[in-house]
TrEMBL record:
<dbReference type="InterPro" id="IPR045336">
    <property type="entry name" value="MmgE_PrpD_N"/>
</dbReference>
<protein>
    <submittedName>
        <fullName>2-methylcitrate dehydratase</fullName>
    </submittedName>
</protein>
<dbReference type="InterPro" id="IPR005656">
    <property type="entry name" value="MmgE_PrpD"/>
</dbReference>
<dbReference type="Pfam" id="PF03972">
    <property type="entry name" value="MmgE_PrpD_N"/>
</dbReference>
<comment type="similarity">
    <text>Belongs to the PrpD family.</text>
</comment>
<dbReference type="InterPro" id="IPR042183">
    <property type="entry name" value="MmgE/PrpD_sf_1"/>
</dbReference>
<dbReference type="InterPro" id="IPR036148">
    <property type="entry name" value="MmgE/PrpD_sf"/>
</dbReference>
<dbReference type="InterPro" id="IPR042188">
    <property type="entry name" value="MmgE/PrpD_sf_2"/>
</dbReference>
<dbReference type="InterPro" id="IPR045337">
    <property type="entry name" value="MmgE_PrpD_C"/>
</dbReference>
<dbReference type="Pfam" id="PF19305">
    <property type="entry name" value="MmgE_PrpD_C"/>
</dbReference>
<feature type="domain" description="MmgE/PrpD C-terminal">
    <location>
        <begin position="269"/>
        <end position="430"/>
    </location>
</feature>
<dbReference type="GO" id="GO:0016829">
    <property type="term" value="F:lyase activity"/>
</dbReference>
<feature type="domain" description="MmgE/PrpD N-terminal">
    <location>
        <begin position="7"/>
        <end position="245"/>
    </location>
</feature>
Length: 458
């Protein structure tokens, strides 16, 4: 009987010939648009800029491109740096059921592979879909226990990157299976990185992209892996999900029939996804009742345990910590009106009104929210006003989740907001139009040139 990785390999290798229907292709384009929106601003910030300096011997020449600089680089260096950039501003997509950000590693690897192979847009879309379908299912299978210690984007992201690169390179089912097997033993990335003001978390995404691309390139040359490395007695699932019992037949049964890429969350706030429901609820109450900082006695937020565990810091000192602070994000939502990039600039971080509201947030675990997790990321919020009112709001999901999605227009607005400060309005508009029409025979190299700073393209 075929191993799980062999089943995933056969599915992925057969995807280009099977073709994508218009609905799946549309959702794949949305994922790529969202990836560029998150990556362009991340590419001009540490740690991506520092990684490029550290790898000076691999940057300045090669068949792939760093964004948004437009600098050529070797394939693995480009996957690593662009994959890191994609996860830096905390605006990349989420597969809710899998506690996982698939786009950052998967699309970084797919783009690097496409440039190396001279692939076209349609091939890129097939690779992206394969990466999402393989890795999203693995993420659901091993979680939530996996997420106790491991960062899913770092670990399962390796599978998404490998599957995507294998499809773009045109590997057959055997080669693709071995690419997945090889990358299985490379997968790592600890949750401890969330708990420190460090650059490790975005590096997790880049490292997964790099590992996936490398595994696919090795498989193309005949390098083999342990094909039972996922479900074997000393394999990935047992080692990294403890006592979880997984029905792998169920995991793979609906490949090619149920498309997980059509159920992505595209973030509406530039912070950890575990704060979004609370931000949505507070913002709705503020709009409905005309609330400002002076009106609030305290804000009570009940959510699920992971929200408090990962985002419970009431006094963040750095931008990284603020993005993982529910109290800070709630304060920014009330005072500034949104939790977009401006909420993490120096002026906002030092704003006494934001800090004052954050200090009045009481963050607890709500039993109903906990019971619904991870299928739903909810929050129950009560604003107690200084004139004695108690205003309540339950957010059963987040704006941007598949049951409350960003529209295509919303996604385009998000892209413009993030891309225009980097590329300028005209160049950002041209890139958005290219991404909205992604597919066909246009080379991916042309797309990457259009995503670079104007001076790099001259």
């Amino acid at each position: 009987m075929a191993t799980v990785l062999e089943r995933f390999g056969a599915f992925s290798a057969g995807l280009p010939a099977a073709g994508l229907d218009d609905r799946v292709r549309h959702h794949a384009r949305r994922a790529v648009i969202d990836w560029f929106a998150a990556t362009l601003p991340g590419g001009v910030l540490p740690p991506a800029t520092l990684v490029a300096k550290a790898l000076a011997d691999q940057v300045g020449q090669g068949g792939a491109t760093l964004l948004p600089a437009g600098t050529p680089a070797g394939g693995q260096a480009a996957a690593l740096i662009n994959g890191t950039a994609a996860h830096t501003v905390e605006f990349d997509d989420i597969y809710r059921d899998g506690l996982y950000h698939p786009g950052a590693p998967t699309i970084a690897a797919a783009l690097a592979a496409a440039e190396l192979a001279g692939a076209d847009g349609e091939t890129l879309l097939a690779g992206v879909v394969a990466g999402y379908e393989v890795s999203n299912r693995i993420a659901v299978a091993v979680n939530p226990r996996h997420y106790d210690f491991w960062h899913t984007t770092a670990t399962v992201g390796c599978f998404g990157a490998a599957a995507a690169a294998a499809v773009v390179f045109g590997l057959d089912d055997r080669q693709t299976s071995h690419a997945l097997a090889t990358v299985t033993t490379m997968a790592a990335g600890l949750q401890q990185a969330f708990l420190a003001d460090a650059m490790s978390k975005p590096l997790h995404s880049g490292r997964a992209a790099e590992a996936g691309l490398l595994a696919a390139r090795l498989a193309a040359e005949g390098v083999t892996g342990a094909l039972d490395a996922l479900e074997g007695p000393r394999g990935f699932a047992v080692a990294m999900s403890r006592d979880t019992v997984i029905d792998w037949d169920a995991v793979t049964a609906d490949l090619g029939a149920d498309w997980t890429i059509t159920r992505m969350t595209f973030k509406n706030h530039a912070a950890c996804g575990h704060v979004h429901a609370a931000v949505d609820a507070v913002r709705a109450l503020a709009d409905e009742h005309g609330l400002g900082e002076a009106d609030v006695e305290r804000i009570e937020v009940g959510s699920y345990a992971k929200s408090k565990e990962i985002c419970g810091n009431p006094t963040p000192a750095t931008v990284f910590e603020a993005k993982f602070s529910l109290p800070y994000c709630v304060g920014a939502a009330l005072v500034l009106g949104s939790v977009r990039r401006a909420a993490f600039e120096d002026a906002a971080m030092a704003d006494p009104a934001v800090r004052s509201v954050a200090a009045r947030v009481v963050h607890t675990v709500d039993p109903d929210c906990q019971a619904a997790f991870p299928k739903a990321r909810s929050a129950r919020v009560a604003v107690v006003t200084r004139d004695g009112r108690r205003l309540e709001r339950f957010a059963p999901t987040r704006k941007g989740d598949p049951d409350n999605p960003l529209t295509d227009a919303d996604l385009a607005d998000k892209f413009r907001e993030l891309a225009e400060p980097v590329l300028g309005p005209a160049r950002a508009a041209e890139l958005l139009a290219s991404l909205q029409g992604l597919g066909g025979t246009r080379p991916v190299r042309d797309l990457m040139a259009g995503a670079a700073l104007a001076e790099a393209a001259e």
